[in-house]
Amino acid sequence: MPAGQPLLEVEALSLAFGGVKALSEVSFTVTSGSIHAVIGPNGAGKSSLLNCVSGLYRPTAGSIVLNFVAGEEGRKRTQRMSASSDEDDAAEKSIERRALTRLKPNRVARLGVARSFQNIELFDQLSVLENIMLGRHIHMKQNLASAFLWTGPARKQEIAHRVIVEEVIDLLKLQAERSKPVGTLAYGIQKRVELARALAMQPALLLLDEPMAGMNAEEKEDMARYILDVHELAGVTIVLIEHDMNVVMDISQQVTVLDFGRVIADGTPDEVMNNPAVVEAYLGAQK
Question: Helices (H), strands (E): how many in the chain?
């Protein structure tokens, strides 16, 4: 998808649980090649929004559309994690649109959308390598018999998947931890492993739900650098939920602000930081 073009379009999205509205007519656009932050007070609807995009929740109204270059649905970059070098060629191809609002999470993932969760969702007894390999499951095609017997096609696929996983491990500096059970690792490293597993899916769009929650200042700085590396070196568009405004200002190009399930501001970090509604609702101070 050419940089600067709309990749994800959310229009008038609403979500209700019984009589409680979690989201009300939320609209915003994520452009390809950007880091797009979604911020707001606790309970503003940020995680509910990501759950709608990833297919975990079905919205009560509105639309979510993912755009992709024709022929690249569920695209798989092989042998490398670097950004595509044929962006000019992609710009000449037609853009297809796919509605996500009625799709199950596995279908959304196959279209190129991956996510991490606010709470760590890893298998403690498995190694770092094994956890990251799980991110390749949507690309695995061998049948049960060939996988069990490890025939030629199964071996080739295993090698191809391992190549990509090794590149993710190198990118996120996890070489020293690759064989260790995830449950024995420090919290900050576990969060990095979760990022690695999502990246192993080779997504076009990566949804990160508070990837720095619970981290100290040094760990946040490290994670911010890794997120920038994923964005710049792997060419992945990122939607980021984050409470630390310093991080948002430093790494995002666009910010959408939610309050009580509604969008109260959308713009560049500077525009949002100087928006009176944001100052009152999110920052809790008047200028």
Answer: 11, 10
Please indicate, yes or no, if residue 232 is contained in any of the structural domains. yes
pLDDT in tens, 20-38: 999 999 999 999 999 999 9
> Which is nearest to 236 in space by CA: 113, 89, 109, 106?
113
Residues 6+ apart with CB under 8 A from 59: 13, 14, 15, 23, 52, 101
**Number of domains composing the chain:** 1
* 66 CB-side CA count, 13 A: 28
107 domain residue, yes or no: yes
Domain assignment present for residue 224? The answer is yes
Between residues 282 and 30, which one has the greater pLDDT? 30
* pLDDT, tens digit (0-9, with 9 covering 90-100), for 114-162: 998 877 888 899 999 999 988 887 766 655 445 444 555 666 667 777 8
Q: Which pLDDT score, from 0 to 100, does residue 153 have?
A: 62
Position of tokens 């649109």? 97
In a domain, 162, yes or no: no
Q: Which domain holds residue 252?
A: 6-120+203-283
What is the pTM assigned to this prediction? 0.85
Cα–Cα distance, 197 to 46 (Å, whole number): 22
Q: Which residues fall within 8 angstroms of residue 34, CB to CB, at 6 or more apart?
A: 237, 238, 252, 253, 254
